[in-house]
Write a structure and sequence with these properties.
- This protein folds into two domains: 12-95; 96-128, no CATH class.
- The longest helix is centred in the middle third of the chain and has 34 residues, at 59-92.
- By secondary structure, the chain is an all-alpha fold.
- It has helices at residues 14-41, 47-51, 59-92, 107-112, 120-126.
- It is built from five helices and no strands.
Length: 128
């Protein structure tokens, strides 16, 4: 069976992607704001704390708070990158097309997960 080329791939009409692009840009802005807020709430982000070498009763709490902030920041960084890539796919005209098989990704999936790169069939195969 011949492999599909980009030319053979079905794509969303560009006028339908305008609101998608706006949604993704708004999502990116919100994600960056969340990242900034989480970083500011990190107990270790306080420059005075970095100079304080004395052990305190709250040290374990601060460490836990820092670990939580780092984990959330990591997840946000991944989501930010996925969103940026989705915006690029919109610009390139590849948005909504499965990166593996080239078929259209179900619109319900894209509504729930706008940065999806795989159709459900390919996603299920990749998770096996």
């Amino acid at each position: 069976m011949a492999k599909k080329t980009k030319k053979d791939t079905i794509r969303f009409p560009s006028e339908l992607l305008v609101p998608v692009k706006e949604l993704l840009r708004a999502q990116l802005k919100l994600l960056k704001l969340r990242r900034k807020n989480i970083m500011s709430e990190d107990p270790f982000s306080d420059p005075e704390r970095a100079l304080d070498n004395a052990a305190t009763d709250t040290e374990a709490e601060e460490q836990f708070g820092h670990d939580m902030a780092e984990a959330m920041k990591y997840q946000l960084e991944e989501k930010i990158e996925q969103t940026k890539e989705a915006i690029t796919r919109v610009k390139n005209g590849d948005y909504g097309t499965c990166a593996k098989c080239g078929k259209m990704i179900n619109t319900d999936r894209l509504m729930a997960y706008p940065e999806a790169t795989l159709c459900m069939s390919c996603k299920a195969k990749s998770e096996k």
